[in-house]
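ok so for the tutorial part 2 we go from a plain amino acid sequence to predicted structure tokens. step 1 is just haveing the sequence, like this:
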Amino acid sequence: MSLLYVSLSPSRHEYMNSINTTFDTPVLELKGSIMTVIVLHLKATDAGRLYPQLEQKIGKAQAFFRNAPVLIDLSDLGEAEQLALDFTELASTLRGMGVVPVGVRGSARSQNERILHAGLGLLPAVKAERSVAATESQPSTIQDTTQEAEEAKLVANAPQQTSSAIPTKVITQPVRSGQQVFAPEGDLVILSSVNAGAELLAAGNIHVYGALRGRAMAGINGDATARIFSLQCNPELVAIAGEYLVNESLAPSCINQCVLVSLGSKGLQFDVTGSFTPAP
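step 2 — the prediction. this is what the tokens look like for a chain of 280 residues:
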């Protein structure tokens, strides 16, 4: 059979060329992307405390967390504490709560095999967290120590107007359900409404000069001084520097009011600054 097949082809070289041409039109692409992922920071591994608190936290907003990807962060746990954690049980429990655990970061090398056995991916620990002061004068790109030292000297002698160059993203159209608007370096200003199912993310502040009914996450790089301003506040979720609150937990006095959201020592603070009625 193979002899008959070869005899039908003019040459082996020509046959190989015919095979290679099938790859001229790719059927897939691999790309990096910035996406919103809920990060579960574990502070302890005692199952008697961990799982009841998980149930309480996720149970408060089941509609929001349903089918949401979750990244498990072990950066605050030592190797002995990680060893006491049953990753298979944790992943199974999270799936039972309606979320989708996708991976683990900050793990000790000795735990990697157990994590993979539980069907979870491995991500590197965060190498650097941007402090509040750093967000005002330094770029977010992680650089080697030598380069950082050299640039620190330049920054010290540079004019103090570099921070003003951080761009502000301005959107003039309504942000509709399913849309995501991302301001990776500065503030985000929406000169219209944000519908339920839409998502706003910004390294700095978020201003919504209309109704906020979707999700708004400010200070996504850890800037605890970030603020969220809304003329008509009724969001699905608001978050600042990782601290979040869902709609079900909002005080009735804040609903559909002009609200300033900030991060205080006890969590998110909501200050009602007035009321707003959209023009007909």
